Amino acid sequence: MTQHGRQVPDHLLIRIAQRNDPVSAVSEDDARRRSLAYPKLMWGAPVFGHAEEVAGRWRILGLSGDQPQGSRDALGSHFRQLRKETPETAGHAAERREYREAIRLLDWEVVDDLTVHGRRYRIIRAQPFIRMGPDGPEPPRPTDPDPYPPGSTRGAPYQEEGFVIDPTATTGLSDGLLRIEMVPAFYQAGLVPDDVRADSRRALATHPNVVLLPVGFTIGEYVHGSWQPRSFTTYPTPQAARDSAAFRFGDIVPHEDASLEEIRAAYTRALEEFEAPRTDEFEIRGVRCRVTRVERFVRVGPDGPEGPRPSDWDPEPPPELHCQQLREQGLLPDPD
Prior knowledge:
Layout: E1 15-16, H1 22-37, E2 40-43, E3 47-54, E4 57-65, H2 68-85, H3 93-108, E5 113-116, E6 119-133, E7 136-137, E8 164-165, E9 170-171, H4 173-182, H5 194-206, E10 209-212, E11 216-223, E12 226-229, H6 238-243, H7 249-252, H8 260-273, E13 281-284, E14 287-301, E15 304-305, H9 319-328
Parallel strand pairs: 1-9
Antiparallel strand pairs: 2-6, 3-4, 3-6, 4-8, 5-6, 6-7, 6-14, 10-14, 11-12, 11-14, 13-14, 14-15
């Protein structure tokens, strides 16, 4: 784990370099101050995505699912789009056939690693965490990019899309120290089931390094004397999180037996009445809320990023298999 160790395998490297430009200096100072003000790291539930290997490095195509199957479905959609974009000519027939076979495979089977048209694809696992201090979760830092004005964040790009998972890339001092801190980290006894903890410890050997991903943002709320996530969705900028603040389903449904028309009307009213806050601290219906900074890392090994673990929550079967199961149970009609 040294910037000078030429004999160290790539997947074990953490390269730390001092950056002398003004922006890096301010960012490092922000990170140092926040590590003191928010010293406790709290892990959240893992998130999953899909990535492709390009020139020996893995590039993230998407990262948003709370279960692996959602990311497998997203990878299937990626192949559908690639097949759609591939010309229907004799010269591209083999490529189109490979995409079709990959789509069918993902529709019917649980697959986390496959090669299609000479390129490897993988379902990947990322670990989110937030920093906590005496006053609650860490808010955005002054140096976190926040380029969009209120109400104009729809469609804002997610920084992790296209991000290359490269353990050899040079990092600043604060991020390098954080990576070193995360390398030996695993779930502690009593906080998670035994199989989850065992998988967590096993990952230290199979994927012994970590790479930090671009940060995201969500909304935390103070309820019954403690902070909790208002939503498990992570947004690309602080303002995108603020813009999302009013649209939790339970807040807008008028009553438990509301009809679809009533729900639509309530949602329309919520859109019309909501004015996105411009600050990181605000109230929604009397509940204290805070824009919260979410950091994430991916564990990496000699063969690339870590995939789903056996103990990860993964209740949904592949879509075509699920439909078949529902038909066998009489819960879905046979296709015409």
